[in-house]
Structure formats: structure tokens, C-alpha cells
Amino acid sequence: MGTFKAACVQLRSSDDVSENIATASRLIREARAMGADFIATPENTTLMAPDGGAKIEKTFAEAADPALPAFRALAMELSIHLLIGSLAVKVSATKTANRSFLIGPDGGIAAHYDKIHLFDVDLPSGESYRESNTVAGGDRAVLAQTPWGKMGLTICYDLRFPQLYRKLAQAGAFLLTVPAAFTETTGKAHWHTLLRARAIENGAFVVAPAQGGLHANGRRTYGHSLIISPWGEVLAEGSIEPGVILAEIDAALATDARGRIPNLRHDRDFVGP
Q: Which residue in 66, 80, 140, 171 is deepest, having the highest Cβ count within 10 Å?
């Protein structure tokens, strides 16, 4: 437990991997200059491709991905804990994993998590998404140990599945990460409400770095990166533009919130309808 500064890097990633690495690196440096000890980037940090085929063409197996060495070196140089919200990591000829990486200040990969819940929806706006066409879903919840306590790793659409966050909180997570590329439509309707709910019901900090704005592939993402306290207070919020938000995190406040509302201890088994 302890106090530290957390930052969200908000991006507007394109289909140019090298350009995205450079932009993210610049903003990570900016966050560190502002005093951040823990810095998180959004889902799809290095690639927002126009379609699934284009994504497959520009992705790599984990061992060959050019982003990981760059970000590992940066974390070591800046002596930070760095969450790369997600990279598309090729796991077969037709599928990637949507994989989040927590990198330690020694440059090592402290933990990684593959997005469990895949975004397959048709929205009233006419937007249609089939993430499962090109993404292999994960099957394991992940806790990462840090100097401040345990962090629970999730990605974007996972946010709509509260049972995942419950398990992470009950396993000791004081902070939950939700890197995302929420659509503009769903973000306006649900982003703030869902993130505050996950914080309040679990007595945990939520750090949610986001993609924001009109991307080169024509997709619009909502932005509004958020850092939320265990009591549901918005500690920092971004706009639609790329940039950095920062908040001080006192890990003991999660223990305090759970003492005031001890609902994590009150779950009961019950017979379904």
C-alpha cells in the first residue's frame, strides 16, 4: 500500500504502427515529467486498422512485435510501471490476441492479459463490429502485483461483465485497469456510468485510458479517459483529444471504502430462476 501518481495517456491511434509507437512514447514521457509513477495507454495502442484483414497484415507474434522492446526500454529508462492497454498480437494466420501488458521499471513484463469478452454487436447507429472474426478471446482473469498492491487487468468490452471485476476485487485487486476504444455512440450512453459502477461496487480505483476522436479508418471513439476513486468520485477526466490526465492514488482508500461498505464479504450463493 502507499500513495503514487497514476496517469492515463489518451490516443487517437492510426494504422501506422511506427507513428503510434512514437506518439504514445512522447505522451508517456510527458506523463512521467508530470510525476506519474504508473502510466496506462488505451486499447489498440499501436494499431487501429480499417478492417480485420488489414489488422492481420500489420500484426506480429509477441516475440517479433516492434512495440514491446520500445515500451520495455522506455519503462526502464523512466523507471515506471507502464500498462500498454493492448496490442494486437498474432497467435495464428487468421487471429490475434487483444493483449494487455504491464511492464515493470526493470523493463520486464510483470503480467499480461488477453481480453476475454469480444465485441460482436450491431448498434442502432448502423455500426457493426465482429471482434471475434479476427480475435481469439482469452479465458483467464489476471492480477498483477505492484509495489502498491494488486491490480486487476481488463480491456474495454469486459467492462460490461461485472462478474469479472468482482472476482478480481475479491482476489485482492485495489485498482482495476480498463484500457478502451469505446465507440462514440456507446461511450456517450454508458462509459461514465459503467466505470463508476465498477469502482463503487468493488471499492476499487479504476484507471481507464481511452482512444478518442475520428481515426484514419473512419471510426469514432469516445475519449474521456477517466481515473475514479473507490467511492465513485471522478479524480481526473480527459476530453476527446490525445493527451495526459493525472491523479494521486492513495491505495489505502480502497481498504477504507470496503470497510465502509463491506459488500465484497456479503456475496451469497443462491438458486437461479
A: 80
Which one is catalytic: 55, 115, 131, 184? Answer: 115
- List, for residues 158-191, the tens digit of each pLDDT value: 999 999 999 999 999 999 999 999 999 999 999 9
pLDDT tens readout for residues 30-86 = 999 999 999 999 999 999 987 777 889 999 999 999 999 999 999 999 999 999 999
Strand partners, 128: 122
Which pLDDT value is given to residue 54?
Answer: 83
| Interatomic CA distance for residues 249 and 136, integer angstroms | 34
Q: DSSP states of 202-268 as a string?
A: HT-EEEE-BBEEE-TTS-EEE---EEE-TTS-EEEE--SSSEEEEEEEETHHHHHHHHHS-GGG---
Residue type, position 129, single letter: Y
Q: At 182, which amino acid appears?
A: F
CB atoms within 10 A of CB 115: 24
Mean pLDDT of 213-227: 94
Specify the pTM.
0.96
Superfamily of 3-262 according to CATH: Carbon-nitrogen hydrolase (3.60.110.10)
Integer angstrom CA distances of residue 133 from 96, 129, 138, 220, 250: 10, 9, 14, 20, 41
Domain range annotation of the chain: 3-262
Q: Is 43 a catalytic residue?
A: yes
Catalytically annotated residue among 43, 90, 95, 184: 43
Strands 142-146, 81-90: pairing kind: unpaired
Looking only at the bridges linking them, the beta strands covering 38-40 and 96-103 are unpaired
Residue 156 bears catalytic tag: yes
